[in-house]
Amino acid sequence: MRNSMRNMLICLILIFYTAGFAKSNGDLFPRMIEKFRHQLDLDGADKALMNAVTNTDMKQLTLNRQIYNSYNDIFSHKIKTEGITDQKSSGRCWMFAGLNIMRPHVIKKYNLTSFEFSQNYLFFWDKLEKANFFLETMIENADKDLNDREMQILLKSPVADGGWWNYFTALIDKYGAVPKGVMVETVSSEKSKNLNFILNNLMRANALELRQMAHNSLKKSVQRKRKEEMLSDVYRLLVYHLGLPPQEFTWKYVDKDNNVSEKEYTPQKFYKEVVGFDLGEYVTIMDHTMHPYHTHYEIKYCRNIIDKSNMAFINLDISKLKEFTLASVLDSVPVWFAADVGHQMEKDRGIMAVDLYDYETLFNIDTKISKKDRLTTRASMPNHGMVFTGVDLKDGKPVKWLVENSWGTDPGNDGRWTMYDSWFDEYVFTIIIQKSRLPKEIQELLKTKPVVLPPWDPMMDSFR
Description:
Helix content is about 45%, strand content about 15%. It is an alpha+beta fold.
């Protein structure tokens, strides 16, 4: 009798356990799934929604018509620019944006109808410099385990397309610039995936060889001699894919008054004489909500040239970024910036607006988290560089911003986009601004020793 009661109790426990009534240990029980199923109204609203979502693009269902219909492309202040560039299927936005900062100056200075720099020229040197940077860091870190977190970041994409403002200025400082016609785009510059596949795999193979040389106790001078041979292969591959960079060239142009001019230049001379920007006057300001404000930072390994400095920045609240941007744009000085373009953007009309897509109402869910939490959880990070070229003011305050993108003329209003001011707050992370525009107390922060952030910081990882 006692044994039968005991067996019956065990059976009841097993029944309740498998039915999902026992205390959960974290598993997904059949009873739980059955509960989910019964909570659905498959004869009513849930069925209709399922039919709609399974047969329609979700963005069409969630597009906020009030925002979409209220859009206009009228701005109270526009910086005069000519033409839109197109980075095609490459990650060169930072480079395009940097060159787009300088284009209006050249057009005005030489009375031109249009002008464009060669992005392919800088792309060539960026790839070669990144290859050298990667191999040199492999030599310097040969004693680290390959599973070390820093090593994993470096090995992830040794010669990626991405970059920051300091990458751009380092290239200009060393290699100058040339007009687009001097070194035009190629299939591999416009669609860099295959080139990157070859170079990244070559770099990893080279890294393993250099590490083996170090483990065999060969001197660094011997390793660097072998590195030079490796870089010769990289240079050769880049010439195959991108063409040979010019050492000298003739720039011939006709201005708006049909005056024809031509002159011989080196790339460095062309930049100094034709452009003449002091890029060292520009500083990086971020709204990095993961770290304390009013602090000077730098990110380890955040550079493309081995003997240049890592990216350094002053961390300020987004309201300050907006204040400095507005002052610059109103002075007709375009502003380079980086933002997260993975959220709340409509490409046909070129709209960036918070709540442009209303997933919460459609699905009765809540996905909204703070800007800081989005950074911390990697839900949001700066992944695209563009240029502010205008603003629309109401009672002295910005309502929306005019953005020059580098995605060609099809998306947006002939390639120009409209960013609503609340989108600026949520998804803009970085601006590049002239140091002279900053208050003295912020300029003083630039003189302080920067706090070094690790290379896996989201600000670095996003542009690799």
